[in-house]
Amino acid sequence: MALRVIEIVTPRSDKDEVKKSLEEHQPDAGYVFWASPLDDGESLSFRVVLDVAETANVMDELEELFAWTDKYRIVVYSAEATLPRLDKLALEEEEEEGSDSSGEDNGGQAAVSREELYADVLDTSLLSKHYVMLVLFSSLVGIIGLMRDNVAIIIGAMVLAPLLGPNVGLSLATTLGDAKLSRAALKTLAVGVLLCFALSAGVGLALGVPEMTHELSVRSMTSYSDIILAMVSGAAGIVTVTLGVPTSLVGVMVALSLLPPLIACGLFLGAGLMPEAGGAGLLFAANIICLNLAGVGTFLVQGIRPLSWYEKERAKKATLHAALVWTVLLAALIGLMFLKTH
């Protein structure tokens, strides 16, 4: 099983309170912990080793415990193994035999803590020169793959997945009601889309589309199965992210719905093929909407929510508003698809 280490640095004066809190929740979470003095002589370091699935609950308890002071620091990092083992199977057997554990059902809780997830998503949601370079490189790879009708090259562009991170960040920001992260993710996504589209349109204007390849053709139209694919792949991608898998590894699963249609739209528009450009643009828009709608829903199912009551209320309103907007946009796109086919 995946393990995490939570290190808590506190003043020595808080030793008894921290130890008592950790001991109270230890039977439910099944972790081990110990304390060590630090060199400054005024602080202690508590280290907690636990299953990754328990990290979110324990982090919430610690955040509530330390809400009244700023004289602490909590750091979470991965652990490869621990001896003696944290025997999860043994704990499950005890529960089946009637253990009177008072812990809450954790079935819907995300595998990684909210703080870990936020840190991972933030890295791919902020605009930087590295992100711009990644967008340009992946766009060039995708353009070559579509023009040459080479699936392997197109998959190479998918793996880079520059548009995935901002969309995941936008979904998480909506779920948490985090306006700052939402603005950052929208800005990064907008820059990525504009760069990719401008580069593709420029190539289409300069070179045209000498041949309507199969890979270009399939991205010039949108079907109802594409919407289902985007919803399912978006949900699967978010689940994998909450399990602690780096976003780049999920790219091949989700980028299928993002980069190639956008590149095809730019190429068609630059070459003056307006109906095909409209079809590719519709596919890209539908997949962006489905990805975000599925992302918000999956984060909620995974138990990703703010901790405080005030933040929960704010996040609830933001989630409802965003879900309404995405749903209306999806309904409008489905209406356009229906009109095009009838």
Structure, briefly:
The protein is of the alpha+beta class and about 350 residues long. It is built from 14 helices and four strands.
What does this structure look like?
It comes from Pseudodesulfovibrio hydrargyri. The chain is of the alpha+beta class and 342 residues long. The chain has 2 domains: 3-96, 2-Layer Sandwich (Alpha-Beta Plaits), CATH 3.30.70.120; 114-340, no CATH class. It is built from 14 helices and 4 strands. Strands 2-3-1-4 form a 4-stranded antiparallel sheet, with helices on one face. Strand 2 and strand 3 form a beta hairpin. Helix 5 (129-148) packs across helix 12 (259-270).
Please indicate the count of domains. Answer: 2
Structural class estimated from helices and strands: alpha+beta
Strand order of the largest sheet: 2-3-1-4
Major pleated sheet: 4 strands, antiparallel
The rounded distance between the terminal residues' Cα atoms is 53 Å
* Overall radius of gyration: 24 Å
Protein name: TIGR00341 family protein
Keywords: Membrane, Transmembrane, Transmembrane helix
Pfam family, one: DUF389
InterPro entries: DUF389
